[in-house]
Amino acid sequence: MNPHATPVLNGINPDFPLGFIDVAFDYVYDVILAPNAQLRDQTVPIHTDSDFVLRAVVLSTATGAFSIMFNDSQGYYFSNGFLLSANFLSGTVPYPYPIFQEVLFPAGSRIGIWINDLLGAPNTVQMLLRGAKRYRLPKAA
Amino acid sequence: MKTAEYRTPEGYHDMPYIHVYNGDALTDGNNYQNISTGVADSSAAFILRQVMGRDKIAARLQLRADYAPLMGADFGVVLPLTYPVAPERFIPLGGLLGLDLWTVARANRVAGPVTIFFAQLAFQGVRRWAGPGTYPAPSSYEYTELPFVYDFTFTVNWVGTDPTPRQFVIPINDTADFELQRITLVRTFQAQVPTNVIPDSELKFQLYDNFGEKLSNAPVLDVYLNDAANGATHFYNPVFPVPSVLYHRQGVIVFEVVSLLTAPLLPSIYQICFCGVRRVPK
């Protein structure tokens, strides 16, 4: 392996359970927040073809500051309060925000979002919910 | 995720590779669907591990493997400068990676009536070949590794409207093989003025391995290869090549340079460093 390179560039051995295969996939959350809007119970539906393993959140773009809280389809919140959007930046550069341990969303469920505008002006936000689709392999005959 | 050392599957070997897609001929402001990225290999599988340069070509994009989208977005994604793909994406022999683009905006450099475009997306990973072999190649002797840099200074005195690449050769006049692990590039002189800056899309490079095999399908923008960084600049966090490449002793490092400079920026002088380890015979 090349000691200067990231684990991704050196290749990461698959770690999915026996009988499954993970395929890299991002669910995308797009929203245009009205000034000082507070949007509760936003959802990103999980496709019905496979479960989804959430491993990181990336802020693709935002006009300005906002705060956000995520929950799963059982209503379990991943934080006790709102995360400021600066948590997803390193200086001004978007930086992956790892979700560890990874969270499994069953096929057909949803990722819940509660998001508040802090800009006081129209705020265009796109977030990547990064992870992998976990497909079930056909059983051997 | 596991952090154990990665192993290429039994019976295969991997070669570091960058597939690039050049969008210089697109029209600014337009949307495009299902265009080929250039990741369509008829002789080897391709393992995609990193995508760089969305900002060079369009406001949003969507990638498609066999027409299935890699991201669940109806109108594309504002990808970060560097987009790691984990788990890595396997594009089979004869496979295809497609691309949708929204609001094309081609990166360019203007001087008077001349516009030089460098709207390039880079798909970094490895080509996977069936059959025995290893990358980097083994040496024919026992050795210890010591860090080493082959540095080389060259002058670019032709404008970007001239598409002909210029070839440079660095001889390995040594008793030790050299394993290349990363590349850095700094501009030291421009238009009669001394400089010390990390160039931003001023050149493209075509690299070759020890056997003369190309390490990309077309010349690659400097920012997708350059691992140099300072407090303000580290554009895409690239490391190339991964896995590293072996150049045998008494062999040569060959590379070609394409200029993206305009006439007022000439001449420009660059120092390129090929960083790695010497395999010193025991």
Q: Helix tally of chain B?
A: 0
Q: Tell me, what is the CATH class of the largest domain in chain B? A: Mainly Beta
Sketch the major β-sheet of chain A: 4 strands, antiparallel
Domains of chain B (count): 2
State the major sheet of chain B: 5 strands, antiparallel
Low-confidence stretches of chain B: none
Nearest-integer average pLDDT of chain B: 91
Low-confidence stretches of chain A: none
- How much of the sequence lies in strands of chain B comes to over 45%
Shape of chain B: globular
Provide the CATH top-level class of chain A. Answer: Mainly Beta
Structural class of chain A: mainly beta
Which two chains touch over the largest interface? A-B, 34 and 40 residues
Helical content of chain B (DSSP H or I, runs of 4+): under 10%
The CATH topology of chain A turns out to be Jelly Rolls
CATH fold field value of the largest domain in chain B: Jelly Rolls
How much of the sequence lies in strands of chain A comes to over 45%
The helicity of chain A comes to: under 10%
Question: What letter string, H or E per element, gives the SSE order of chain A?
Answer: HEEEEEEEEEE
Q: Could you tell me the number of beta strands of chain B?
A: 20
Summarize the entry for a quick read.
Chain A has 141 residues and is an all-beta fold. Chain A has one helix spanning 7-10, and strands at residues 20-33, 38-45, 51-62, 66-71, 83-84, 89-90, 93-94, 97-105, 110-117, 123-136. The longest helix of chain A is centred in the N-terminal third of the chain and has 4 residues, at 7-10.
Can you tell me about this structure?
The complex is a heterodimer of chains A (141) and B (282). With 141 residues, chain A is an all-beta fold. Chain A has a single domain, classed as Jelly Rolls, CATH 2.60.120. Chain A contains 1 helix and 10 strands, in the order αββββββββββ. With 282 residues, chain B is mainly beta. Chain B has 2 domains: 119 residues, Jelly Rolls; 139 residues, Jelly Rolls. Chain B is 0% helix and 51% strand. Chain B is built from no helices and 20 strands. In chain B, the strands form 5 sheets. In chain B, strands 12, 14, 15, 18 and 20 form a 5-stranded antiparallel beta sheet that branches. In chain B, strands 1-11-3-7 form a 4-stranded antiparallel beta sheet, with no helix packed on it. Chain B is globular. The model of chain B has no long low-confidence stretch (mean pLDDT 91). At the A-B interface, helix 1, strand 1, strand 3, strand 7 and strand 10 of A face strand 3, strand 6 and strand 7 of B. Strand 1 of chain A pairs parallel with strand 6 of chain B.
